Amino acid sequence: MSDSNSARRVLVTGGSRGIGRAVALELAAAGMSVAINYRSRSDEAEAVQAAIETAGGQASLLPFDVSDRAAAAAALAADVEANGPFWAVVLSAGVTADAPLAQMDGEAWDRVISTNLGGFYNVLHPLVMPMVRLRDGGRIVALSSVAGCVGIAGQTNYGASKAGLIGAVRALAKELAKRKITVNAVAPGFIATDMLEGLERKELAAQVPMRRVGEPEEVAGLVGYLCSDRAGYLTGQTVVLDGGMT
Ligand code: NDP
After folding, report:
1. Which residues are known to be catalytic?
2. pTM (2 decimals)?
3. Measured in angstroms, how far is the CA atom of residue 92 from the centroid of ligand 1?
4. pLDDT tens digit string along 38-80?
5. Which residues contact 38 (CB under 8 A, 6 or more apart)?
């Protein structure tokens, strides 16, 4: 555990399940105080909080819908006012709504874009200036996807949102570099979470040179590194973690 982390707060959006859950556990084990954001499943979020506290770490719950700009701004401003700025933000909240474009309704397009890409603005806009004012550097990591790097049929909405994040990360990294705040994206391939529900794991594994899907903890290990003091010169990048798929 890094001593410097003991005073550091991190927000993990979508921290209640899947990759976000593993990231919350990883960063809590590294000594950070973790705010777990989620939208609806408070049982899952409370279980993550309990696991962190049982292990001797610090965690709090911060529910809001990342696609709701006003709700995100209100919840984050109140939290920063009460508890201080975040040193790190990991954007893991994300959704899919797959369909071929010709059959995709506008609601499915809007929901995926406003959650996955809109969440970047809605969450970071209220947090960047408080982070800058900390004068201690900082870390921002967005969960993109291989779907944002290569085309996947049925995912025009999801692919657009994840490619958009890569562009947003590149630009924000340049804005914040002089403040010693790094901004990166992680682009996983298939990772064993609820998001793969309904998909045949063996068929997915057959598309991966490693012949298996990845584990959330493997993504969390990379995010943990990007959020560490050792990663202070790595910014504006997208790190792909996909078992050799792309
Ligand atoms: P899960 O479906 O397992 O978990 C999604 C998490 O996001 C939950 O905590 C959920 O909370 C939260 N969430 C969803 N919508 C919102 C919202 N509007 N506001 C706040 N929280 C929300 O997803 P994964 O862990 O698999 O995915 C995490 C990220 O990684 C996503 O951005 C995803 O696109 C990306 N990714 C995942 C891959 C995979 O194969 N699993 C591959 C590549 C990228 P609640 O339960 O309360 O709704």
Report:
1. 158
2. 0.98
3. 6
4. 999 999 999 999 999 999 999 999 999 999 999 999 999 999 9
5. 14, 15, 16, 17, 44, 45, 61, 63, 93
240 in contact with ligand 1, CB cutoff 6 A:
no
pLDDT in tens, 167-186: 999 999 999 999 999 999 99
Asked whether 8 lines ligand 1 (CB < 6 A), one says no
* Cβ of residue 118 lying under 6 Å from some atom of ligand 1: no
156 token code pair: 């025009």
Structure tokens of 54?
């049982």
* Beta bridge mates, 60: 35
22 CA distance to ligand 1 middle (Å): 12
Q: Which of 13, 23, 38, 48 to mutate to test the pocket of ligand 1 (most atoms within 8 A of CB)?
A: 38
CA distance 55 to 48: 11
Residue located via tokens 């598309």: 207
Instruction: Give the helix/strand (H/E) hosting 58.
Output: strand 58-61
- Alpha carbon distance 93, 126 (integer Å): 17
